[in-house]
Design brief:
The chain has about 350 residues and is of the alpha/beta class. The protein has a domain of about 230 residues. It is about 45% helix and about 15% strand. The strands form five sheets. The protein has a four-stranded mixed sheet with strand order 1-8-7-13, with no helix packed on it. Strand 10 and strand 11 form a beta hairpin. Helix 5 crosses helix 6. The N terminus and C terminus are likely disordered.
Length: about 350
């Protein structure tokens, strides 16, 4: 299997244009997205050259490497952008490079001087770079070596991002570009490679996330993916607002659902607590009632004992014969002392009779 893969890779390399042999890199079977449309940020200082943005490929798929102003490794060199090319069974990335002339970059219209062939953004003269103001955003108060020449397709637009294959550009290297491919080249600077590495770690730059409209489309300097010099893709602000609005609505719905669930939980807890408290109060109220019933049950015999003599006394004094018959046993037992009380008073009457009336 490994031999088959190596053979396929060798065939792919052989199928690539000669101008791209020295720059061959990674190869994949998925076509890169369209190039991103964006505005060029202001050139930070004289001597910096514009390097256009491009789609690179990583572990999570394509990600956008923002265009940026770069200080060249030496005076007098120009940048040839890298490009994706179809090799028959896969897409291969051809690395960009620095050299005395601009070589073949697949006929890709990167904009801002890189219209598909050569470079119309400026040139070196007396170790100083002159900027074409029609395609470069420069501050003339700080940068004086400028000129203006009209360039067709000078802006970065949504355009094809690969050469060859179905839907790709059909450009082929010219004789001059073939010659340039064999000149002495200088690879991308450490600032450029660091710039790509920083982009690969930014989740928002993934094509699957930004859908071709990255929030960081270009920067003033390599590696500076935040701050004043960052430029978003055209239309990215509106799309980001829509995404933010959707995310906000989603969070709002989630919060409402969570609040509703929390309210229902608190309601259930309150009802449970109220039921428990009501049951406790009910048990506490029932306990004294049982105590009173117990006390009443104990005191009832005493009440009967006190009322029994009263009933007997009333029965004894009642004049009705029927009542007397019922109370005879009691009447006889209580009335017996009464006849004895009269004899005690009788002697007093007998003593008064002989002394006064006779």
């Amino acid at each position: 299997m490994q031999k088959i893969r190596l053979l396929s890779l060798a065939l792919l390399i052989l199928a690539m244009p000669a101008a791209s042999l020295a720059q061959f890199g990674v190869s994949i079977t998925i076509a890169p997205p369209e190039l991103v449309a964006y505005s060029q940020p202001l050139c930070p200082q004289a001597g910096y050259l514009w390097t256009p943005g491009y789609w690179a490929y990583g572990d999570e798929g394509y990600f956008w490497v923002p265009g940026t102003w770069v200080e060249p490794p030496i005076v007098g060199v120009l940048w040839t952008p890298g490009y994706w090319g179809w090799g028959g069974n896969a897409y291969a990335w051809n690395e960009g490079y620095w050299g005395p002339t601009v070589g073949f970059y697949g006929g890709i219209n990167y904009g801002y001087g890189y219209g598909g062939s050569g470079y119309q953004g400026g040139y070196w003269k007396n170790n100083e770079f002159s900027y074409n103001r029609s395609v470069n955003n420069v501050d003339v108060t700080n940068i004086h070596n400028t000129y203006e020449k009209t360039v067709i397709n000078g802006q970065a637009r949504n355009s094809i991002g690969f050469n060859g294959g179905r839907g790709g550009t059909t450009a082929r290297p010219t004789a001059a570009q073939e010659t340039a491919a064999h000149e002495r080249h200088t690879p991308a600077t450490s600032a450029q490679t660091g710039h790509q590495q920083a982009a690969s770690k930014n989740h928002e730059l993934l094509a699957s996330v930004n859908h071709g409209k990255p929030p960081i489309a270009a920067t003033s300097k390599p590696g500076e993916l935040a701050g004043k010099g960052v430029v978003a893709a055209n239309g990215a602000a509106a799309e980001n607002k829509a995404a933010e609005g959707k995310a906000t609505a989603t969070r709002s719905n989630q919060n409402k659902a969570a609040e509703g669930k929390a309210t229902a939980t608190r309601s259930d807890q309150n009802k449970s607590a109220q039921k428990k408290e009501a049951a406790t109060h009910s048990n506490e109220n029932k306990a004294p009632i049982r105590s009173n019933e117990t006390k009443t049950a104990h005191t009832q015999p005493a009440v009967h004992e006190q009322t029994a003599p009263r009933a007997q006394a009333r029965a004894a004094s009642a004049p009705h014969p029927e009542a007397a018959t019922h109370a005879e046993p009691v009447h006889r037992s209580q009335a017996a002392p009464r006849p004895q009380s009269h004899p005690t008073n009788a002697p007093h009457e007998e003593k008064k009779a002989p002394g006064g009336k006779e």
